[in-house]
Amino acid sequence: MLIGQLAKQTELSRDTIRFYEKMQLIQSITRNNGYKDYPEQTLQQLHLIRTAKNLGFSLNEIKQILALTTQGEIPAIQVQDIFQDKLNMIDEKIEQLMNIKTMLSRFTQGEACPLRTDCPIPDLN
């Protein structure tokens, strides 16, 4: 399938498809005439990429997931582990953001300015 057909079927731009190929998320086969041909499985891979991005996975994380799919169907327990790891990361990020929100709220209510040299800021990491 040519890139134009793939773009139309997936509603992704050609640039996005080329970027995913550059990131080695998908592969193409170069024809004798120089055109790139994408196998049918690329549609499924692009659907997985879109779904994973909507769930908050980074392209590097998606690349690891796609590597698992090349070995066949990912076992359910492994999918659960991937989702749990992502949930744990989200929980950590939420906690960090809540700490930042609390500090900013205190600063807007009259506590010393954090942008001054005499005002220590705790490390949030």
Automatic annotation (TrEMBL):
Domain HTH merR-type intervals: 1-68
Signal peptide: none
Keywords (A to Z) from UniProt: DNA-binding, Transcription, Transcription regulation
Highest taxon above the source species: Bacteria
GO MF annotation, one: DNA binding
PANTHER family: HEAVY METAL-DEPENDENT TRANSCRIPTIONAL REGULATOR HI_0293-RELATED, REDOX-CYCLING DRUG-SENSING TRANSCRIPTIONAL ACTIVATOR SOXR
Protein name: HTH merR-type domain-containing protein
